[in-house]
Every structure is written in structure tokens, then in C-alpha cells.
């Protein structure tokens, strides 16, 4: 069982797409009852068999590469045909490829927008738990030198999450059992800080929260807080991710309302659309 441990801390996690590490380690329960990460919420209550968190994926080394495709009808709240602007200057092209917003401005605002949207899109259940779509998305945003490592890191995170959702140690088996229609896995940026920018490279730290749940899991949906630092490089007229790290960040007191049962929460969440994000002026 998982119990609420609001003050438990963990060291920062290395490499990979940061927020995946944040949620994976915040939600995963390893054998022996060790909860790694920082999560908030109430102790689990008895619920119907259709309960919570999950993930699905397959080995990155054996996954088939999917050609990049432009999404003609993205589900985001900002249509692909409508660029994002800050102070009248366009920071995003309005294009979405393989589920990820691409075509960011060669500027500080463009770097912040790229880091935020890459993290949010790649941490969505629609991409993370579908092996082909996940690998195609990683290929879209990763710098060439970082592609193999980031793809492998993300796959491992998905496997760890799947194992925690089903409460089993066999991660490959857990991933094979996941149905993406039963997953809620979402990250929400709260604030950002531009750590460095020189035109060729940028580093952005994002304070964010996230929620993960699986309808058929014995665990209730969980929330997590942390700070993801994303490193970017300007390549081929767009920002590409070279890596990210995660550490604990400010964590507010959890909502005192009783948690929503997983089937209800996942059903309600799926009625809403995703946002694309632009930095504040």
C-alpha cells in the first residue's frame, strides 16, 4: 500500500526527459514498499475494481521508427493554424508534428515555449504510453546526439510507471497490459525561469505539477510537484532538446477534498483538451 508521506524527499534524478522522471519516481512503488519521490494526497480508500495509474511502451531498441507527420486536427486548445505570440511577436509557428508543437522562434521566448511544450506534450498519456507515437515524438524534439539516450530513458520511465500502476515487478508485462484509453497522465507548468541563453543553447527550469492515474490500478490517481530543467540547442531552425534533470520543488498543501475515484476522474479529464503554452510577457 502507499501512504501519504508529504515530507519524504529524494535526490534529483539524472538525464532523460525531466518530467517523466518526476512523475515516474513520484508514482512508483518498488518491491518492499519503498515510495520514491514526493507526492501529495490522502491515503488510499477502498474503491471499485476499476481504479487508477498506468503507462505503455516497448523496447526503444526494437521499436519501429515512425515517419514524422503533421497533425491536421490536433486536440489542443490552440489550433495548429494559430501561432502563439508574445507582445505581438510570434514565438510558435502553429505547426504540430508527431503530437509535438514545433517551429519555435530563435529567441528567449521561443526557447521557453519549446521547453515547456516539449515537456508537456511528451509527458501526455497519448504519446508516452504508445511505443510508436512516443518514439516518433522523441525523434521530433531530440537533438541528434541525444536521441538514443533520451528515447531509452523515456521507455524505461514508462516501464517503471506501468509496473507501479499494476503493482508488479515485471515491467515489460505491465506495459503490455496497459490500455491508453484508461490512462490519465498529464503535466501542468506553473512558472518558469530562463537560466541561460546565448542564441545557440538555452536552459529553462519549469516549476510544474502533474497527475497520473490508471483506471484498473489498485492505486488512486496521484499528483506530484517538481522542477524540471530542460537543456536546448538551436539546430535546423528550431530548438532541440539535449537533456533534462529533475529535482524537488516547492510543494503546496494537498487539497483536503476526498480523491475522485479513478474511473470518474479519467472520464472527466478526457472531456477536456490540452493547451499549448507561451511564456508570459
Q: Could you please describe the fold and organization of this structure?
A:
- The protein has 281 residues and is α+β, with helices and mostly antiparallel strands.
- The chain contains 7 helices and 11 strands.
- The strands form 4 sheets. Strands 3, 8, 9, 10 and 11 form a 5-stranded antiparallel beta sheet that branches. It has a two-stranded antiparallel ribbon with strand order 1-2. Strands 4-5 form a two-stranded antiparallel sheet.
- Helix 1 (18-27) runs parallel beside helix 5, helix 4 (131-141) runs antiparallel to helix 5 and helix 5 (147-166) packs across helix 6.
- It starts with 17 loop residues before the first helix and ends in a 12-residue tail after the last helix.
Task: Summarize the topology.
Blueprint: H1 18-27, E1 29-30, E2 34-35, E3 39-40, E4 85-86, E5 89-90, E6 92-97, E7 100-104, H2 108-122, H3 125-128, H4 131-141, H5 147-166, H6 171-177, E8 183-197, E9 201-214, E10 222-235, E11 238-247, H7 262-269
Antiparallel strand pairs: 1-2, 3-10, 4-5, 6-7, 8-9, 9-10, 10-11
**Could you give a short account of the major beta sheet?**
5 strands, antiparallel
What is the helix content? 25-40%
Number of strand elements? 11
Q: State the secondary-structure class.
A: alpha+beta
Radius of gyration, in angstroms, nearest whole number: 18 Å
Q: Which residue ranges are poorly predicted, with pLDDT under 50 across at least 5 consecutive positions?
A: 1-16, 28-81
Molecular shape: globular
Q: Report the order of strands and helices.
A: HEEEEEEEHHHHHEEEEH
Arithmetic mean pLDDT = 75
Fraction of residues in β-strands: 25-35%
Give the CA-CA distance, first to last residue.
45 Å
- Total helices: the number is 7
